[in-house]
Amino acid sequence: MISFLIALSITAWVYYQTTHRIGELEPNDRIDDNDFQLCNEDKIAEYYGMNTDYIGGKKAIKSKILNKLQFLDFKESGLLTYRFVVNCEGEIGRFRLKATNTDLQKIEVDSKNILEIENTLSELKNWNPAKNKAGNTYDSYYVLNFKIENKKIIDIF
Questions:
Q1: How do residues 23-72 score in pLDDT, each as one tens digit?
Q2: φ and ψ at 106, to 5 degrees?
Q3: Which residues lie below 8 Å from residue 78, measured CB to CB, with a gap of 6+?
Q4: What pLDDT, on the 0 to 100 scale, is given for residue 22?
Q5: What's the burial of 76, exposed, middle or buried (CB within 10 Å: 0-12/13-18/19+)?
Q6: What residues contact residue 127 under an 8 Å CB cut-off, 6+ apart?
Q7: How much is the pTM?
Q8: Are 86 and 129 in contact (CB under 8 A)?
Q9: 28-31-36 Cα angle (round to 5)
């Protein structure tokens, strides 16, 4: 009887985990590029569980785009957290933004700044998609943070 309850509990937990993924980036025709396609809409891995990365890592991302974003002005210091998908072809899309001030309170960001950052990110073409041991590639999430101080982006990590 105990083994049945344990098996039932594990089955329920696995079912919940596979049907209620935290932070899924559902497609949104209003804000997403319709040309961006996923290889498997039902299976998008978390980047930290896979080897998804930009060639050269976040240091290379920072060196390629930080200077391009220096003309942007922000109303207050804080953190911009972008979450997006790297598809199995190494293309990126489905950008989602969470913006907070230094007290971690939600803030509004000028839509022109959002568009400029997303366009600049889209110029990055050297993504390594998630790959398993057999060499098959997968769609996966990725996260980049932009630190804002004195109305400017000062760091990307």
A1: 566 665 566 677 888 898 888 888 677 789 999 999 999 999 999 999 99
A2: -60, 135
A3: 99, 100, 101, 102, 107, 148
A4: 44
A5: middle
A6: 52, 53, 54, 55, 86, 90, 91, 92
A7: 0.79
A8: yes
A9: 75
